[in-house]
Specification:
The protein is mostly helical. It has one domain. Helix 5 crosses helix 9. The N terminus and C terminus are likely disordered.
Length: about 325
């Protein structure tokens, strides 16, 4: 046995997480968990509103002035459980942030996007406190939901970018300009659809509590505008899907799913409108809206082409090259 082998230095012990690397597939699973945790809390938040439990806990961060934990009362427990689920979301976001720092190879775009989730969750905490303090002011209720959609956008882009993709095609190929424009228009119209949906909610019967203020709008008019935007988005999604046919672009399959989900969403929307907006259908409507938004965002993005490059979240020009009208 040589002296070199006997006196070989012992490596220092690993101290998590600073010197332990995370492989890209593992980090992709962390980002997927964060995405669906954020989607799930949208549904639990809707359950609070639809059961009239928005003021079940009348204080923040405690449930009441003298109790942190909710009493064994229906509305208080629903609101408190929704607050507890925020802890699950926080853990998922923390895992995404830490994972981005120890992922090998490390990428700045993933670290920045994960920090965006932190900023969004902190903003949601502040907005949630204001929502309780203002007794469910509909403007704050709208902001709470729309900020959730911004968080889902952030998380969906992070999830797409965290997954290694196929090498890019030759950049000299030029995509059809109308198709590129439509791929950008779908998320824009989708955002308008979300905003008009919050207007319907703010003016309708499910504002979170019987004492909550409503927006000074006619529900019928707000719902009509929301329906027109939804139909426009459906037509745009189908048209975009048709133009992407035969290209093999991932956006083609996703846009097809968006069109199918929008069709189902339309059926649910009209059914709930003509049946007195039952809470269960409204809850399904909210859950489906979150899924559709995630699919729209992912359809407009492309995965990383190579670890050395920071990919963009723009329509994949190479993949849709040659798309015909």
């Amino acid at each position: 046995m040589t002296a070199e082998r006997v006196f070989r230095p012992i490596p220092p012990p690993r101290i998590w997480p600073y010197d332990r690397s995370v492989a890209p597939p593992t980090y992709a699973r962390l980002t997927r968990f964060a995405l669906w945790a954020l989607a799930a809390i949208v549904v639990t938040g809707a359950a609070v509103r639809l059961t009239g439990s928005g003021l079940g806990c009348e204080d923040w961060p405690t449930c009441s002035e003298d109790r942190f934990v909710a009493d064994l009362e229906y509305h208080a427990l629903i609101e408190f459980l929704n607050r507890l689920f925020t802890g699950v979301v926080a853990l998922a976001v923390i895992a995404a942030v830490l994972g981005s720092w120890v992922r090998r190879p490390r990428r700045r775009d993933l670290a920045a996007l994960s920090l965006g989730l932190v900023a969004g969750v902190l903003a949601q905490v502040v907005l949630g406190a204001l929502l309780v303090k203002t007794e469910l002011d509909p403007r704050f209720t709208m902001g709470h939901f729309l900020l959730s959609m911004v968080l889902l956008l952030n998380a969906a882009v992070l999830d797409v970018r965290a997954r290694p993709g196929a090498p890019e095609t030759d950049g000299s190929q030029r995509a059809d300009p109308w198709t590129r424009l439509m791929l950008r228009a779908v998320p824009a119209v989708g955002a308008v659809l979300l905003v008009t949906g919050t207007l319907v909610t703010g003016a309708g019967p499910h504002a979170g509590d019987s004492r909550a203020e409503r927006l000074p709008l006619l529900v019928q008019e707000a719902a009509r505008i929301h329906g027109i935007v939804a139909m426009s988005l459906l037509v745009l999604a189908v048209w975009t899907w048709w133009r992407l046919r035969g290209t093999g672009a991932p956006a083609h399959a996703r846009m097809g799913r968006v069109a199918l989900l929008l069709g189902a969403q339309g059926v649910i929307g009209y059914t709930q409108y003509f049946t007195g907006v039952p809470a269960l259908l409204v809850g399904i409507h909210v859950a489906l809206a979150s899924v559709i938004w995630i699919e729209i965002v992912k359809a407009a993005c492309r995965p990383a082409a190579a670890e050395a490059a920071a990919p963009s979240c723009r329509p994949d020009r190479a993949a849709i090259a040659g798309a015909s009208p």
